[in-house]
């Protein structure tokens, strides 16, 4: 039996998308443009919501936090990815790798919780319209958001501590866009069964619970929509929820494919492509999805643009 190299690893070498040298510059420019679009779109959404009093409602309050988290979420991953492409692979210490994994898990968990909270908010607005104001008070909104941040921190802390109590040895190359769990587990040596169980339990708890809240909320919403008597009522009501459903499908669909499946014999190249969808594409598309599908946001954008044009006139 061949002996495995048990030299302990103290740093990792990220090499994602560096196999084809001819694609380095095009990919660098594409990801850079995506990152700039993410920053511009989400920051613009936050400023738009803060600046327009018509958007000072619970739904947009949650949306502003989703945009803030998406900015932080993208900034945790994309700059590192750009460095990998620019330098044709880059070295990252174990401490920096752990910090990146913690921040990624922290913001990804908050994203999951916020999408579930937004589904509950739509349920309350559509199914309990007379009680909506008393259900979604300012105190309740802040409590839900604070709970999402606290739960995200707890989940990220436990998963990070558990993952980095593992020993890594032999090959230190991570052919992935950042320090994520699946490639790290491949580099671990020794018995990792306990750590893997704890990590998987937390992953299974966060995603399915959030998905269950979303599915149940929208089941009640669909039933309520079908009972709206007017001809245009169902379409108008559902249009307010369509943008949220699009964001949910994009984000959770890619996460489920990546984490809640059998990892044996999986394609590394396929995993890298999927990881780009939930770390790069989803945060960029969220502002676009909500602005294109939402009448109030489009009106607020037009109002802001008209004010900007008026301010430039002599």
Report on this model:
The structure is a single chain. With 314 residues, the protein is mainly alpha-helical. Helix content is 74%, strand content 4%. A 3-stranded mixed β-sheet has the order 2-1-4. α2 runs antiparallel to α9, α3 (94-127) packs antiparallel against α5 (138-163) and α8 (233-259) packs antiparallel against α9. The longest helix is centred in the middle third of the chain and has 34 residues, at 94-127.
Strands, helices and their partners?
Blueprint: E1 11-14, H1 24-51, H2 58-87, E2 90-93, H3 94-127, H4 132-135, H5 138-163, E3 167-168, E4 173-174, H6 181-187, E5 188-189, H7 193-226, H8 233-259, H9 268-292, H10 295-312
Parallel strand pairs: 1-4
Antiparallel strand pairs: 1-2, 3-5
Helix pairs in contact: 1-2, 1-9, 2-3, 2-9, 3-5, 3-7, 3-8, 5-7, 7-8, 8-9
Transmembrane segments: 27-49, 61-86, 98-120, 140-158, 197-226, 238-260, 272-292
GO molecular function, one term: G protein-coupled receptor activity
Subcellular location: Cell membrane; Membrane
Structure in a nutshell:
This protein has 314 residues and is mainly alpha-helical. It has ten helices and five strands. The protein has helices spanning 24-51, 58-87, 94-127, 132-135, 138-163, 181-187, 193-226, 233-259, 268-292, 295-312; strands spanning 11-14, 90-93, 167-168, 173-174, 188-189.
